[in-house]
């Protein structure tokens, strides 16, 4: 089938897609957006969490055919998504991170210039910044899914309790951090957002 | 900007954090590659036997399928020491899940479909997969863990134990455990003539480069292994794994780049795991709890393809003064997946047994468990007689006592109720050796005042890239933003694996050495850098040979408070505290996360993690994250970590000990000891599942007069 859907605010098309292909495969191998990770491929670990029409889903469990005419946000578009949310939404459908921009975000060897002058100039979202500042990132493989899930939590609950956070993130496994710094990051993002408004 | 404030010891944020939070950090199968093909392995469906036929007709009927490889047509590999890497070389199957065939196709879906369509016929043979204490195949291996003696004997254990006033004799068991890093083992392989480039998920690019060179019969310079970002490993990526060999082989056959990411449910069979252990501990003591005789006898298994012998009794050669002691390892060869390293191999299961036994001894003697450990503190390393370069176990126990509020603890067993919950607390010690391995580094000064440091280190999430930049900038005496450290490629100066908690020491030492010499040479030149720049290479092999003989270990103390539900049998950890003495902490932010992560994995070992060998099929029953439970966010309580700053000049120029593994050592014992304090039930076989606790709890309820 020809698949038409919106990824990170821009309309995209892909041809010769088998309807049963996973959305994760479409994103990673057809769209060139490998930020969403494949760690279990059966919805247990949350590493591939993306937003589908605003709802956090495991992209590995969504069939390509199901995303026809729908909107997907991945970690690559999270900063833009958060910025537009702060500005009151994107009415035109023309804003967002273009696929070409997203593909150009190549990993560069860390250059000792800390997080400030990074690989691409875009402003990070509050949750992305908080993950760096709180030290919530280790190997980074669970990070994209956790960021999408945590951002969605803060969108519907600006000041979550610790129980709210644990509940919201309990579908996202991390084998490195022991979660403490991840909780710290969500608290930090919530506190900073509260200060800002 | 200039700074004189030392960067070592400061809580730098992770340098690659931005790439990781924007999804732009590239892992092994994330690189955009033209004309890429995808491979999907076929695991063997018998535990032992011969492949009699491979029928690929149906698989090859799909035009998207490029090749089906099996022992019949796969390229021949050269032999290496690691027989798990001789993939598709023989019809013989050594364990269920070993790779029998490989499908390669132009899409992942087609490869997966083809793998399912390949028909492999087997002539099965009887298999033997269950470890028992009296297994007829048990033998004494030549050594354990590359060079450690299998057995050690001091004094006269048998006589002194027989005469001891207090005797403890107990058997502890740990189940098979799986590393399960979040990133499955994966590789992208590309040939350019006889040059092979692999993006591979591993803990040591240099090591994988050398093994691939051997297997394919090429010079090491022809092999380029890139592991810029690695999604965790915990030991399971410490050596080359079969996936990278398969990917390279497939790429050669189909003459295209090939991506191969192992599906999660294949990892348990082919990427190593912690083997099960059965550990008998006998302690003879006086009534004050002074240990006079200690025996720690370990029974474990390896596979038909060899594998790692879990050196679980080694901790009893380090921890406590015991004038009469025996430590032994016996192993049997079974038709099982090949065991390997998992976080703190040896120490982790060994300390579950020893620290549970010390708790039992404390109760038997009526001595506080912390005081018991203090009474048995040795003045030199008990087995070697060497002085410790530094040992602050007692300080860790004392500091933990204060922070945890241990003095308020009522020592009575099963004395504290909250409704249907029983509350208890426990303590255990932690230990891990200090290893350093030979590595090289280069430091380069550019004419523009910038510095580049190169070392084939692997940042598997530890923060190596960040801490090496701190070490380099400190040694050069320049601000951090003038230094760029490159890691994650075998094209860089060769270095050791991210394993044995040795990365920071092994890589940081040559980085420090190269940068220090570069600084001196620049000073001699009056700080004018030649036009072509100035490069200094460093190698620490001689420095390692010149070290004085000391027993070098990190130590720690862990405290746990648990609640046990008397109706459901569920144990939940309420609090965990770890206090560690691990040399100089070079980056408190990344270090703290390492300790907590280790303790969390220890919590998983105590309560959740465990794999079951299926006697009929000969494989591990829990092969995915739905059945093998790693701790989730909601399982983990507040974890508190502190450390005692140690000044130890016998370590390395940074004064650091490794911290990646000690966090998991002792956690399970602290939790099991807390469960005993809460309930009076002693669990000697992990994990502490409700199913294990319910029968004794129900028995206690019936026996109680209420």
UniProtKB/TrEMBL annotation, chain A:
A Pfam cross-reference name: Fer2_2
Leader sequence residues: none
Keywords for the protein's UniProt record, in alphabetical order: 2Fe-2S, Iron, Iron-sulfur, Metal-binding, Oxidoreductase
Domain 2Fe-2S ferredoxin-type residue range list: 1-78
Top-level lineage group: Bacteria
Annotated protein name in UniProt: (2Fe-2S)-binding protein
Organism: Streptantibioticus ferralitis
UniProtKB/TrEMBL annotation, chain B:
Keyword Oxidoreductase: yes
Pfam families: Ald_Xan_dh_C, MoCoBD_1, MoCoBD_2
Keyword Oxidoreductase: yes
Residue stretches making up the Aldehyde oxidase/xanthine dehydrogenase a/b hammerhead domain: 22-126
InterPro entries: Ald_Oxase/Xan_DH_a/b, Ald_Oxase/Xan_DH_a/b_sf, Ald_Oxase/xanthine_DH-like, AldOxase/xan_DH_MoCoBD1, AldOxase/xan_DH_MoCoBD2, AldOxase/xan_DH_Mopterin-bd_sf
The entry's keywords: Molybdenum, Oxidoreductase
Official protein name in the record: Xanthine dehydrogenase family protein molybdopterin-binding subunit
Lineage of origin: Bacteria, Bacillati, Actinomycetota, Actinomycetes, Kitasatosporales
